[in-house]
Amino acid sequence: MPRFNQQEFLSLVEEHQGVVHKVVNLYADNVDDRKDLRQEILCQAWSAYERFNGDSKFSTWLYRVSLNTALTFLKRGKKHRPDTEAIPDVPEKVKNSLDDVEQLRWAIRQLEMVDRLLINLHLEGYSNEDIARFSGLSDGNVRVRLHRIKQKIQEQFVKN
Amino acid sequence: MESIDKSWEKLAKSLENEMHLSKHDIIHDIRTHSKNPLEKIRNMLFYRVLYNLTAALIFGILMLYYNILVVQITMGLTVLTFVLLSILTFREYNILRNGLAIEGPTLDVVNDTLAVVRKLLRYESVFTMTTVPVSIVGIFYIGVTIHGDDVNIFFEHPAFPAVSLLVLLLSIPVGYYINKWYNRKTLGVYVDRLKKIIRNVK
C-alpha cells in the first residue's frame, strides 16, 4: 500500500485531469489506445506520487509523467508509426471539413513524438529553459527545434 | 504565430473537456493491470525466479537420488547455477518493482527504460544458454527415472557422457539463436522505438 494520502492524490488528479486528456488525445490514435494510455498514465502517476515532493506544481509534475509515459508506452503488437520529416498536406477532403483548431490538432499529430512533446509544452506556456530541463535537451537545441516545428505548422496553416 | 496560439487555447480546452473522470473512474484506471512493456518484463522476471527455484529443487532431489559422483557433481553445479540465477533475477525484479522515475527528464527516462530492456535481453541470453541446455539433459534423466530405468546403466556405456556433453554443447548455440529471434519478435519494435526517441532527443 502506498505511504501517501490516497484521497489527496485522487483529488489532485481529478482537478488536473485535463493534462492527462490533452496528452492522451495528442498521442493515441483511437478510442482503445486512448483508454490504454490514460490507464497507463494514471498507473504510473500513482506509483510515482510517493516521490512527488512539491518542488513543482502538481500539474507540471503530472505533465511530465503523462508525456514520458506516452513516449515510453507501447502496446504489445502495436507497430510504430513512421516519423514524418515534413508535415504532409491535409488531404483535400479532410481539409475542407476542418476548422483552425482541428487543423492544428491534425498538424501536431503528424509530428514526430519528441517534436510533439516540445510544441505541446511550448504552447502550454513553458519557457525554453523549462522545456530543456523537462526533455533533457540543451536550451539552444530546444530553441532551434521549436522554431523549425512552428515553421512547419505555420506553413501548414498558410497552405490551408 | 498568434493564430496557432489562439487555436491551441481552443484545442487545449476541447481536449481537456473531452471527458470527465470521477474519483471512482480514476481508482478503476489505477487498479487496471498495466500494459506497459516494463510491467510485462517485471512479471516475466518473477516467473523466471519461480522457474529457477523449482529447477534447483528438482536437480537437488536428482543429485541426492543418484549415487554417481559425476552426476552428483554436475547436478550440484546445476543447482548452484539455478540458485545464483534466482538471486540475480530477484534483484532485477526488485529494482523494477520500485518503478523507474517516470517523472524525470525525458532523455533520462527513455535511456533508463532502454537500459532495463537491454539488461533483460542480456539476462535472457544467459538464461537460455545456461539453464535451458541443462534442463534438457535434466528432463532426460527425469524421463529415464520415471520410466523405471536406472541411469547407472546408461553411464556404463562409454558413449553416454559424450552424447550428453554433445547435446549440452549443441543446445547452447541453438538456444542463443532462438532466444535472439524471440527477443527481436517480442521487444524488437519497442527497442527500436526507444533508440529512435533517444536519437531524436540528442
Give a written overview of the molecule:
Chain A has 2 domains: 1-77, RNA polymerase sigma factor, region 2, helix turn helix motif (Rna Polymerase Sigma Factor, Chain: A), CATH 1.10.1740.10; 81-160, Arc Repressor Mutant, subunit A. Helices cover 69% and strands 0% of the residues of chain A. Chain A has 160 residues and is mostly helical. Chain B contains 7 helices and no strands. The two termini of chain B are 26 Å apart. In chain B, 22% of the residues are buried. At the A-B interface, helix 1, helix 2, helix 3, helix 4 and helix 6 of A face helix 1, helix 2, helix 3, helix 5 and helix 7 of B.
Short description:
Chain A is mainly alpha-helical.
Extended strand count of chain B: 0
Uncertain residue ranges of chain A: 79-87
Largest protein interface, residues of each chain: A-B, 60 and 52 residues
Q: What spatial form of chain B do the alpha-carbon principal axes imply? A: elongated
Question: Sheet bearing the most strands of chain A, described?
Answer: none
| Whole-number tally of structural domains of chain A | 2
Question: How would you sum up the major sheet of chain B?
Answer: none
Q: Enumerate how many helices of chain A there are, as a single number.
A: 9
Oligomer: heterodimer
Q: How many DSSP helices of chain B?
A: 7
CATH topology of the largest domain in chain A: Arc Repressor Mutant, subunit A
Average per-residue pLDDT of chain B, rounded, comes to 81
CATH top level of the largest domain in chain A is: Mainly Alpha
Looking at the structure, what is the overall shape of chain A?
globular
